[in-house]
Amino acid sequence: xxxxxxxxxxxxxxxxxxxxxxxxxxxxxxxxxxxxxxxxxxxxxxxxxxxxxxxxxxxxxxxxxxxxxxxxxxxxxxxxxxxxxxxxxxxxxxxxxxxxxxxxxxxxxxxxxxxxxxxxxxxxxxxxxxxxxxxxxxxxxxxxxxxxxxxxxxxxxxxx
Length: 160
Fold this sequence. Notes:
By secondary structure, this protein is mainly alpha-helical. The protein is built from five helices and no strands. Helix 1 runs antiparallel to helix 2.
């Protein structure tokens, strides 16, 4: 294996690892956002229902009626907010990209021990470029988390 081949392999593998980790972290961020929004939704609905029961039991409490109406309006606004961003579809895209990149990463590892190294690197390079092109945009937070993961893994590798 030539020095240029090793350099190309290391560069491609590093880009692949970093991009995979970035999409993995983005998927985690979206997962947390989705679950947080769902729990906020559950809490808002529970409070509205509780206030409605209080209003039924004690109709003389006028403030309960107004607070309940305000929370219903907030709940409708929050539902519109949730539906307008479609985080579920974006989460699925990031998970699919991360899965594809893991498969490519495994192909890279198995390629390093095969005879036709340069031909396999060219094939994997093209597949990696296609994956990068079709991948959705990631956030700055996901990139920061991927940087931390890279530094941790690199330090673990060096300190072995």
